[in-house]
Amino acid sequence: MNKSVELLAPAGQWESLVAAIDAGADAVYLGGKGFNMRVHLSDFNFSDDELKAAIAYAHERGVKIYITLNNLISTEELAPLEKYLRYLDELQPDSILVQDLAVINLVRKLGIKIPMHASVMMNTHNTQAVELLKTFGITRVVVGRELTLAEVALLKERTGIEVEYFMHGDMCFAESGQCIHSGVVFGQSGNRGRCMKPCRWIYKLIDEATGTTLNDWSYKLALNDMCMFRNIPDLIQAGVTSFKIEGRMRSPEFVRRLVSTYRQEIDSYLADPTGYTVDEARWSNLYSNRVRDFTTTFAFGAPTIKDIGLTGEREPKIFSRAVVEPAFDDDAVKNIFDTERAIASSTKPKLSVRVATLASARAALDAGADVLYVGGEVFKPLKPWTLTDIKKAVAIAHDANKKIILAMPRTSKDKDLAEFQIVEGVDGILVGNLGALNLLKTLTDAPIYADVSFSVFNPIAAEFLQSLGAVQATASLELSFAQVRSVVEDSPLPIEIIVHGATESMICDHDFAKLYLPGYDEFATPDKLNQHYALADEAGEVHSLRVDQFKRWHIFFGKELCLLPYVEKFLGAASLRIEAQNYSPEVTAQVVKLYRLAIDGKEVSADALKKITPRLGAGVYRFKLSKNSI
Question: Which of 155, 194, 399, 599 is least surrounded, with the fewest CB atoms within 10 Å of its CB?
Fold first, then answer.
């Protein structure tokens, strides 16, 4: 068996492990009964004793075992996590696959001697992030699915890191780690192994202003299965170390067939690269036994309409249907806040506001904002912040004796990092990913603030960000009130909580206009992007769509977050944030004024907000807990 590249197979049960090894896998990834991204079914995953046996069984046969510990960890899970890490250290698997920064932090603190691989859920898209992760014992990165093979080759060349790349299986439509739809709407987070797959719902595209249907009902986010069978040479030439097959919930027979087929094809190429051609009989067998249709996703450029399973006819299982999102004054929400104690603190939080224009910046300051966030992603038809705009905003804020923080995009490829510019006089930088954080520490002495895209779910993750130089972090929007309270109270790092505004359920690199907008042509009709569109779901929720200057599309929840009636419960946080990027200056002023009054202890009514922004919801706060992973 040629070991110059690794064929990595999934196993959800013992029979699948045996099948994968018999079929020729070089390595197998599997999870324990908790702390992994596949915890829906109780008869899948491995008990502690089974993990021990699996490692011994594989190692006797020269096969590596990687343990998936790749979900977000809430505060109440930290003690069991520490115990689990110590147990794994006794077993010595060949690596653990991680997402949560707390796991990296605990591995270091506990002296765990197991190599770590960065899960695709860490949303790694740039060289700077890889270089930082290497310093903490990360030996391999499962790169962001949005990277082309050309970009992967450059990342590999620049960093020398081992690269793992999906070659077959189920794919997310959103950027990994940047989809919170399931966690907020169902209390079952996709980042915690419990995704209810809202990307497999049917939607129609509408004109947001008129409600007119522009593209009728179909499974618009249902990406086909990844299949790189016909592109094995491309993967190898891009420097990919490990070829990953997705499918821990699949049957042993399914795993055996896939691994055997890919094993034979990889070995055929390695035995004779010059004379290699695709074995069409193997391909025919693979294709005729497919679950969904196939795609190469972003490997060779952006997916097109043929890469989407629009009819849904090949969907193996629909996990959920669209539901009405809870209103901010829903009885379940009221009950949560009536029964939960407030976050403890002796200081009053700052009121921060993220704005998209200078006019909104002035409006927010006049209405009582303490801190402004400017820059970063701006949604069409608005223009990105220019250097001149930012300098004016700095002057306006400082004249009012308030702080101004320059935001960076949540996702950054190397080309994006190369364009970062720092404006003198800003009071801090809001960063969206590890690569941006790593780079900006070399470019400026301004304080670093960690944005919501870091998915801070526990105080150990916040502590890790503090060790990297962050002065504040933003709590995940998937945390229930009790869980966000524990993060705030136990974290050594000041924590900001988003309390109001339009929030994204998904961030995507797919181009909705090219896929679904009638009459759109990027050359002939670029002005169509200056209109606002939305996805309507079966439950009647309307999900605004916005495209930013980086050509990424943002899907918003049907209802805007509104915690105005419950502000007193959040006063222990370091900062409360309003997301006002989608607001006019007038609406911004009215919303900020109400929150200013509430923070200052004045009695306010949310009825006024209903007239300004009628679709108001409570996000995840209808649930007592984000359902755990153990």
Answer: 399
